[in-house]
Design goal:
Chains: A alpha/beta (254), B alpha/beta (296), C mainly alpha (257)
Low-confidence stretches of chain A: 247-254
CATH superfamily of one domain in chain A: P-loop containing nucleotide triphosphate hydrolases
Mean pLDDT of chain A: 86
Shape of chain B: globular
Largest sheet of chain A: 6 strands, mixed
Shape of chain A: globular
Radius of gyration of chain B: 20 Å
Bound molecules: adenosine-5'-triphosphate, magnesium ion
Largest sheet of chain B: 5 strands, mixed
Structural class of chain B: alpha/beta
Strand content of chain A: 25-35%
Helix content of chain B: 40-55%
Structural class of chain A: alpha/beta
Number of helices of chain A: 8
Order of helices and strands of chain A: EEEHEEEHHHEHEHEEHH
CATH architecture of one domain in chain A: 3-Layer(aba) Sandwich
Oligomer: heteropentamer
Chain lengths: 254, 296, 257, 257, 254
């Protein structure tokens, strides 16, 4: 398991001859074994934050520390990320894609079992031998999700993993995520555009706007939650308001 | 035939081969002899540098060349026997001394020492014939040595690093090898003549015998020039071949540029054809006399 | 399949027909392009005596040995320089230099270093074959989709895994095309390679036929190289495809049945 | 840049140093690998007399003419056969045949058809250069991302637009690598091309030096081809990059500044 | 403008040695100048239907006729599709991607104007010179949307165009779509996972399940609509019910 401690994190990008901060002065503490959701407008820096967390991008300023019990280190052991696009290997079948992260040494019986399990969860059992060019958008996204879960990461970063899914498939998978979280106590950071989803899943909803965190809303409501009961909390409207009228810093600071 | 005379020739295509030491060609070109002879009739003379015998005969067969100014007799025979319409009008040179077997190994002094050794050189050429003749003269046969087929530069290089014991060489390559420490096992003297001939395309000769005759006249003029201006000749040759004047002077006596076809030359060519047939390099044969044209 | 074969044989058929007619009408010089009949006779003679077969076997060995050696040099080097641009920086100028040098020009040096046995012949083939494989592999690796590489990175893949599981399959089309070009050039290099003290091989046969003014044998040699080359290319890449565990996107789309 | 230059010159420096030392200690035969001093003298002589320059100019012309002709044959054919598999079906067998034939073997026929002027020399260069360009272009077109092509299709693009706006930019890396390999082979083909009745050119110079046993000139020739080839490659693809209106994904990522 | 008449449309696919119908016996009439939304579970065949409509795929059975006034023809003149993935040209900037469909002959002043307009609508003005690798997922989707609109099609097919967008960006663009529809009377077929969105936009909501149309719900509510008033209609729940308990034909029929 792994918590994350983010202090003063900034990320600058350059487009043409124009530099700007995609993330600016992010301070965030993610507890070991917590479920955090991140919401914010398109282009506000959500993906950038996840990319920094899993080391695919180097920060311009600030520090990211991973905590495991009392230990602190610069790199986490197992961070899994579900990218915003499926990014499947087009030469592998759905099943092979799901097993992609496993090393050569894994026994084939164990592989079969894992594949079976995640194909089942993702509802892809019938399509296990299909190639990425033969499946639908939602199936591809589920395959990518299965691939990351199969890696069994301590820290799971998810970038809008359910965006291409319909209401029911989405709901099933939300419940699966909660089960997973409850059963194994994983640390999960989950980016979504869907505020209800953020509330349904997160213990903490982080609202990002123009590269800054403008609000962190704790949701102290026990799992499993239901949509209807969440609505009664009344924070849904509050969050939507915050995002819309939030600190209007332009993300292009040039 | 007079009817063909009407067909005006605008350009004569001639090969220009300067190595190994083709002095008459060099003189003809540097003194503009052909250009001034044929310029009178507005005929252009184009020189083409095609060194290799087979390429010369191919280009001749293709009609791209009219006169091959310096063609190995072996190549001429091979081509003619295989159906190329070419005629020999004169001898360009004989150079038994220019063709040699050389070696770096001290224990190979004479051809008899070649027994059981590796010898490299170009197949089916005068040099190859020289080797065979040298073996026969020493009561050896082809089976007594190991012959490795390769061109002269490769043979010399292979001899330098000891891959072969002796190399067949001619021209500047042999001279440099000798300077670099190799020694002569034997030259062609008494074994082969090493005739280089002047050949023309049969059709060209039939249509324009006069032009061929005039070419022959210029050839004789160049020989006269060489005789009368030896120092000038050495200088021009050195300039054209990139050899030093000393080297030219050393090599010059190897060559006999007398252009007349003597009966001995015909005998020699017959021997060459026999050699080719005997060694399985030629299946057809041709009557050598039919190849020769005597220009009056 | 059958249909494709017929289509493919159209053009060769016309060429052969043209050859027959042209030779019949004596449209060109018999000495340079002998008649099909004469060529066929020579081919039969060479075949029946077993001469052609033994030449082909010798050349086949050289081509495959040379090609495989070139591959085992070029492929890892392409991967290495593609994955580590630093290494490419050190090697590039010297490779660029060698890439432009005609292998034939180096024959004297090759003989000096490698003698006149099989080695210099293989080196000539390697020099000719190396660069298409190397450059295409390098290109494939360099242009490998960054997004897919990031997936491997996120799973903490080491270089070996990244290579085996992402780079190799992703750049396979490029590598294969490099190998095909390379194999083609291996055949082409035979003429040059077998100039060096060869006593057998198709290249040697053609060289000798040139010396001895035997155009019929030259044509037999040319056609033999062309046909054996085509067939070997076909077989080689068929077999390779069998061993490749991943399907090409195209194949999947063209009917996975 | 400067840093990269130094890295790149490391290896050549060691090789030259080795050449100096080896020649000084007479580790090898002076007859085949002359000393750097002697080679340098010959180079100076050839340069000061303008001989080298005139050879280089002649060869440069041949290489570029041959390369451009090959390109203007291979590139459109690669595109055509890539976009219309039917055409490929007709042409493939004959192209495969030609691809394996050593161009040198065809010299007699080239002389018959094209005489002994510039044409057969250019044809030799074209034969050597054609296939890397053709096959890489074909490969690029065939493996062009179907998803992007569908975008063009949905906008009702005609073949020309599809080609100009999607296929060409998408397969550009492949085409460029084909061109680079091709240009390299154009230089390499010089030796063979200038065997046919040439009286000038770097290849001719090397051929002649081989016959005259002038290893110093051979080495000057080899180095000249290597260097001029490398430089021309560099310049050519620099210029080409200028004209290419699209940026490579890599370039964008490596700093769009 | 163009209407579509679909009769008995089926599409069979093969994965491995397994054939199945991704679409089966689809009958659907799309009026000229109408706004149709399609909803259904992941993998039910929505994308397949759109691909058939714009001619990227050949049907196995059935016919598609395009109507224009009284004329009927097999191919429509201008059908624009927004793919489920952005499919941007990675060598072009955002602006160039938006102008991608325009032919060479278009005047550059006109191009500038069009680019300006769609960059504005899509909120991408500041990123017009960025390359696809430099923009966020939502931005890429908006660029793709802008590209198709710029083509000015008579029939617009949209495959979950707003899936990667946050609540507000999505809402803005929904309103833009309605404006576009009202102003130019385009025919629009819009696939979405979001039932509310389907109701907000469509005059007809088509529910697809397992490759078949199981229900077509007309929404006779005038534009501009508001979410709150739609809720009072009560069909939201109905649709969700239909999708969930709908005709449970497996999409793998074999
Ligand atoms: N090229 C193909 N080859 C084989 N099967 C295919 C192909 N394309 C789609 N399919 C299959 O057709 C079915 C319908 O796919 P489609 O993409 O239409 O679904 P969808 O409704 O768009 O789903 P999503 O909401 O997940 O995008 C799926 O089962 C898919 O696997
Ligand atoms: N490689 C890059 N180079 C330059 N700019 C970049 C790069 N990657 C992202 N950006 C910029 O950083 C900003 C934040 O992008 P990011 O992908 O984090 O947004 P996001 O919050 O994930 O948006 P969305 O919800 O649309 O996915 C954007 O303005 C984007 O253009
Ligand atoms: Mg994002
Ligand atoms: Mg879909």
């Amino acid at each position: 398991m792994a918590g994350v401690n983010i202090v003063g994190l900034s990320k600058q990008y350059t487009i043409g001859d124009h530099s700007f901060y995609a993330l600016k002065d992010i301070d965030l503490n993610i507890d070991d074994g917590s479920f955090t959701t991140i919401v914010g407008k398109s282009g506000c820096g959500k993906t950038t934050l996840l990319r920094l967390l899993c080391g695919l991008e180097k920060q311009t300023e600030g520090t990211i520390d991973f905590t495991s019990g009392k230990e602190t280190c610069k790199t986490a052991k197992r961070v899994g990320i579900v990218f915003q696009e499926p990014r499947l290997m087009h030469w592998l079948t759905v099943k092979e894609n799901i097993l992609f992260s496993l090393c050569r040494e894994t026994k084939s019986a164990e592989k079969e079992e894992l594949a079976e399990k995640y194909l089942q969860i993702m509802g892809l059992a019938k399509f296990k031998d299909a190639y990425p060019s033969q499946i639908s958008g939602g199936m591809a996204q589920r395959t990518a999700l299965g691939r990351t879960l199969c890696y069994d990461p301590e820290l799971i970063l998810m970038d809008e993993p359910f965006a291409a899914l319909d209401y029911f498939t989405r709901k099933n998978l939300q419940e699966e995520m909660v089960n997973l979280f409850l059963a194994y106590g994983k640390t999960i950071i989950f980016v979504t555009h869907n505020v209800e989803e953020a509330l349904f899943l997160g213990q903490k909803v982080v609202i990002v706007e123009g590269g800054r965190i403008i609000q962190i809303i704790p949701v102290d409501f026990p799992y499993p939650r239901s949509y209807t009961s969440l609505k009664s909390l009344g924070i849904l409207e509050e969050i939507i308001q915050t995002i819309n009228y939030g600190q209007k810093s332009s993300s292009l600071a040039g | 035939a007079p009817a063909d005379k009407a067909e005006k020739v605008e350009k004569i295509n001639i090969t220009y081969v300067k190595s190994p030491l083709n002095v008459p060609s060099i003189i003809q070109k540097s003194q503009n002899m052909l250009a001034s002879e044929f310029g009178k009739d507005n005929i252009e003379v184009a020189f083409h540098e095609i060194t290799a015998g087979p390429k010369q005969t191919q280009a001749l067969a293709a009609g791209s060349l009219d006169i091959l100014n310096a063609l190995g007799a072996t190549s001429a025979i091979l081509a003619a026997a295989n159906g190329v319409d070419l005629k020999i009008i004169s001898i360009f040179s004989r150079a038994p001394e220019a063709f040699m077997i050389i070696s770096k190994t001290p224990d190979i002094d004479e051809p008899a020492d070649l027994k059981g050794k590796k010898v490299g050189g170009p197949t089916g050429t005068v040099l190859h014939q020289l080797l065979m003749a040298a073996l026969t003269a020493n009561s050896l046969t082809a089976q007594d040595i190991e012959f490795v087929s390769m061109d002269i530069p490769s043979a010399v290089a292979a001899m330098q690093n000891g891959s072969i014991d002796a190399a067949l060489a001619a021209g500047p390559a042999s001279l440099r090898a000798l300077n670099a420490g190799a020694h002569i096992v034997t030259t062609g003297e008494g074994l082969v003549e090493g005739a280089i001939v002047v050949a023309v395309r049969g059709e060209f000769l039939r249509k324009h015998p006069d032009l061929v005759k005039r070419f022959n006249k210029v050839h004789q003029e160049s020989l006269a020039f060489i005789k009368n201006n030896p120092e000038e000749t050495y200088r021009l040759t050195a300039e054209e071949t990139g050899l030093s004047v000393e080297d030219v002077k050393k090599m010059f006596p190897w060559y006999d540029f007398n252009h007349e076809i003597k009966p001995s030359d015909i005998e020699e060519m017959k021997k060459t054809q026999e050699f080719l047939i005997k060694n399985g390099m030629l299946t057809n044969s041709i009557k050598i006399e039919d190849l020769i044209v005597t220009l009056k | 399949m059958n249909h494709r074969l017929i289509e493919g044989l159209c053009l060769p058929f016309f060429i052969v027909a043209f050859w027959f007619i042209g030779s019949g009408l004596e449209l060109w010089n018999e000495f340079i392009i002998p008649s099909p009949q004469k060529t066929w006779q020579s081919a039969q003679f060479l075949l029946s005596e077993g001469i052609l077969t033994s030449h082909v076997l010798v050349s086949l060995y050289r081509v495959f040995a040379g090609f495989l050696l070139a591959f085992f040099l070029a492929f890892p080097l392409g991967i290495l320089t593609g994955m580590k641009p630093k290494v490419l920086g050190y090697l590039e100028p010297i490779l660029e230099l060698i890439r432009h040098i005609p292998p034939l020009a180096t024959v004297p040096m090759l003989i000096l270093w490698f003698g006149i046995g099989e080695t210099p012949k293989l080196v000539i083939i390697i020099l000719t074959t190396f660069f298409p494989i190397f450059l295409n592999t390098l290109n494939g690796v360099v242009h490998c989709d960054k997004k897919l590489l990031e997936v491997g990175q996120s799973f903490g893949f080491n270089s070996r895994d990244k290579f085996m599981k992402i780079i190799l399959p992703a750049s396979l089309p490029n590598i294969l095309i490099g190998m095909r070009i390379g194999l083609g050039y291996s055949w082409r290099a035979l003429m040059g390679a077998e100039l060096i003290a060869a006593s057998a091989g198709i290249g040697f046969m053609i060289n000798e036929a040139t010396h001895l003014s035997r155009p019929d044998i030259i044509i037999v040699g040319i056609l033999t190289i062309g046909i054996i080359g085509t067939v070997s290319d076909h077989l080689f890449f068929r077999i390779l495809h069998r061993f490749v565990p991943w399907k090409d996107e195209k194949e999947v789309q063209n009917g996975g049945g």
